[in-house]
Amino acid sequence: MQEQRGTYNVKSGLAEMLKGGVIMDVTTPEQAAIAERAGAVAVMALERVPADIRKAGGVARMADPRIVKSIQEAVSIPVMAKVRIGHFVEAQVLEALEVDYIDESEVLTPADDQYHIDKWQFNVPFVCGARDLGEALRRIGEGAAMIRTKGEPGTGNVVEAVRHLRAVNAQIRQVVATPEAELADLAKELRAPLDLVKKVKELGRLPVVNFSAGGVATAADAALMMQLGADGIFVGSGIFKSQNPEKTARAIVRATLHYNDPKVIAEVSEDVGEAMPGLEMATLEAKDRMQDRGI
Amino acid sequence: MRIGVLAIQGDVREHLRHTERAGAEAVEVRLPRDLENTQGLIMPGGESTTIGMLMAEYGLIDALRERTRDGRYPIYGTCAGLILLAKDVVGKSPARLGYVDIEASRNAYGRQVASFEVGLDIPALGGEPFPAVFIRAPKIGRMGPGVTPLASYQGDVVMAEQGPYLVSAFHPEMSADIRIHQYFLKKVEQWSTVHGVS
Prior knowledge:
Distance between the termini of chain B: 11 Å
CATH architecture of chain B: 3-Layer(aba) Sandwich
Number of strands of chain B: 12
Oligomer: heterodimer
Largest sheet of chain A: 8 strands, parallel
Largest sheet of chain B: 7 strands, mixed
CATH superfamily of chain B: Class I glutamine amidotransferase (GATase) domain
Order of helices and strands of chain B: EHEEHHEHEEEEEEEEH
């Protein structure tokens, strides 16, 4: 039998292998090496972490290929990178660079305010953000092989991450409890493809892996998201905007593994130094809310 | 029969389900105490660097050395698990058990774009080709005389065994086919009865 590459099985399969792990934003090979040593299961190669993107303002784009390549050379764990929503040429570039996963991300400035990338056209798998079940299923319908709840990137405030994961979970429970005959109506309400809504009912969960992102800053934050049902954790600014990145990274990895063991979480939380400075949601203006992009 | 599934990170849920479907009780193993009353262990795919490091940190490598001392505790390693069972690893080598006399090279097929699935002939299982999924998979290079190859793909051995230990470079838990889990459970039965009492 002929071998097949880029199948949905193979794409979602890599996300399955990352379950229970922590994926860290890095901007240099040195940071990537710190992340790997701390036990990260993958790194996200970026020009700037979300907190700095917020500060810098202007248009945020895909990272310079040189940064991506230098990070690929520095580590043996998978390397992911972000493209602007709808920017399929940035995605083609990252595929040519052979990144292991592409994040079509609201952290960057959207390139298309109507359409996301047709992700079925690529061999490299995509992860996309979502605030609720409908959004998650629309992205999966477009070919995303992994989902992360959006949260609010670069804030160090976990409240939006919690809100989004709870929303997804509540809607999954609603789908499971809805009789077959009423599913089409619910799918319309969720603005989600019916076949995927049926799949959710059958599985009792999303058909792909769902990580938590956008606001995790401490070991306890990571364990909170895991206890709420996340399959794993993305940490953006939380590591390298903290006082002691190495210790923070190690603590978050260990709290993600032993998320049900408060003793371990207490142990790893001790003496890690200051977490990244946080932002209160009410201080964010509508234009600064990344989660409202590409919904 | 009770089988542990190493639950540090990776495809844990799927191995638990396959093991149960194959007819054994399956328990998650995160700490040494979780190994109690298990007759064998499955080490799932994931990131071998991360898994090896955390196994060592939480005392699982030492606990497993103790558990395997009499040679009657079968372990099956898939993908990352294969690396953790390999005697030698090319390049950066993670903390591991190293019980199988092979040399493994990590991500040897290339990055994710080169990951693939294929129907694999595995004579020991018989019947239909096995739906094997290779994800950033390792390759087995050198193989010692005590190691028996069970399947090959394009000239490379992708599944092998040595005594109570079984390894595969691919993921057997990503389809509905449970024949490899059944094969492993048979091995567990064999090693705890024929080779002594469990």
